């Protein structure tokens, strides 16, 4: 093989490596938009992708021995590109069907749709798996250099995979969207394949020009419109972290992320009371001994700002106190400012990971709120004793931490574990269930407190008390729960919060408890 061909072969291997990881990560994002981003979803995606690659390595090695020809190699690459462009287009109607099933919580349909969508990626990933062993066979001219040649090919392929890891997540998906990212990766691979084929067999290259034409035609009639059409849709976009939707129904705007089952922010300019989880965050200071005055709340930190529902409520109730709102996703911040009037002058938005930002804050807070769900999961590093100790170190002597935690009607294991972890750091912990939802609000105070303090502070309210605070406190008193005994403590070394959440979710599904879904 001539040196120029070796260089182009290396370029082909690099591009195939880039496309392989790019397709894998973009496929996970495409499926995550409908099925969520839990570790169960990730495990299935990664597991099946590895199975496809394994098949590709085996098939590619045998194929190369039978037909060690550059024409065969570049034809294989072209078919891989064609399949990579076709798979997401074929998956789109399946995912739209699954999105409607998600709204009905139809578990069998969801499971079948998920597997069907993943099977559509078997062809491109298997063909891409054939590339490296085939390239080794073409590059090998002397068996004495087999180790050197194979090492070089896999090194180049891995470099491509590194590029394919970062490009979709940090650049392509936020800029182009998931579907166009697929088409960009497939187009790049197709270009490399056809140019390579042109070098060795121009007639074959011309015969395969129908491939990009077919993908382009199908894309033009497939990718228009919303992936998940929903009533009242105002905006739909993809950020580095999430698939974001803003809907408006009955004069109220809602922020939906990814699979859309959780409501992450609510905004109605006529009424700040939501009767949901957000209202209860206002109550955190009232667990301290009475009488509590509004002026005793001096500064707030929110880990998981979303579109600013809680910060707006705190500003209305406690005045223009300094609020540090920490949100990892700049796309959500932009949506919050545009659609949720998240423009309070006292709100300092920090676009950063919540734990990192809190650890590097020099401020002390009256209240720290944690509402950083990626339904149904709390990021594990926000559930550990070390994180809560960091939060406690940033609280004033009469400070309180409040966190939103999920459960089912009959399974409170995550509540128990979080309460146990909080009790290892804070003097007192209180639990309030949010009626009509699968949420409980946990309050942890720096000083020793009792639930009687909340009742006393509620009884001491007068006409000057903001109605929103009085209503939230009354509902919190009504839904107080016994604080569970401390048995489990999550640490940075051991925090199986995802495993515990998976168990709760699977038990809920297997029990057929979807009739309980009457809340938010």
Main sheet specs: 8 strands, mixed
CATH structural class of the largest domain: Alpha Beta
Question: How do the strands of the widest beta sheet line up side by side?
Answer: 7-6-5-8-9-11-10-12
The percent of residues in helical segments reads 40-55%
**What count of domains describes the coordinates?**
2
The mean pLDDT is: 90
> Mind telling me which CATH architecture of the largest domain this is?
3-Layer(aba) Sandwich
Percent strand: 5-15%
What does this structure look like?
The protein has two domains: 3-222, Growth Hormone, Chain: A; 272-516, Rossmann fold, CATH 3.40.50. By secondary structure, it is an alpha/beta fold. Mean pLDDT is 90; it is low at 514-520. Helices cover 55% and strands 13% of the residues. It is elongated. Helix 1 (3-35) packs parallel to helix 3 (70-104), helix 1 (3-35) packs antiparallel against helix 8 (178-200) and helix 3 (70-104) packs antiparallel against helix 4 (107-119).
